[in-house]
Write a structure and sequence with these properties.
- By secondary structure, the chain is mostly helical.
- The protein has one domain.
- Helices cover 81% and strands 0% of the residues.
- Helix 1 crosses helix 2 and helix 1 packs across helix 5.
- The longest helix has 33 residues.
Length: 128
């Protein structure tokens, strides 16, 4: 990897981190409002929920990259298109090959950020 590629990757990761921080702020606020609990336990629950949500989302991206949902998604598409009287243009192999994969840096960054949120909430819980 050249230095130019490293800088571009770092720039992408920083943009993703800003998106994840904004997502964390919004979901934490929404959980606090929904639970109507603004004490320390409310904050711990909101942070842990957010961390678990990001962690689960990153695992779903890993599973999607492994093409574990491809057959079921293709089957649902084929069923719905047959109900509408249409025929799919691609078979299952062409559909699998045409699917794009989520870049590795997105998966790793989301996984680490979710784990960090969960660790922060657990740290606050055990300290208090």
């Amino acid at each position: 990897m050249t230095t130019l590629e490293k800088k571009a990757l770092l720039k992408k990761i920083l943009k993703l981190m800003l998106i994840l921080i904004a997502f964390t702020i919004i979901t934490t606020g929404l959980v606090l409002l929904y639970a109507k609990r603004y004490d320390l336990i409310g904050w711990i629950n909101a942070l842990f929920f957010n961390g678990f949500l990001l962690f689960a989302f990153s695992w779903m991206m890993i599973i999607s990259n492994a093409n574990l949902f491809t057959v079921s998604i293709y089957g649902i598409k084929q069923f719905l298109s047959s109900l509408l009287g249409r025929k799919l243009t691609k078979n299952i192999i062409e559909y699998r090959d045409s699917r794009g994969k989520v870049p590795r840096y997105i998966v790793i960054t989301t996984l680490c950020f979710g784990m960090l949120c969960m660790l922060i909430s657990l740290g606050i819980y055990y300290i208090s």
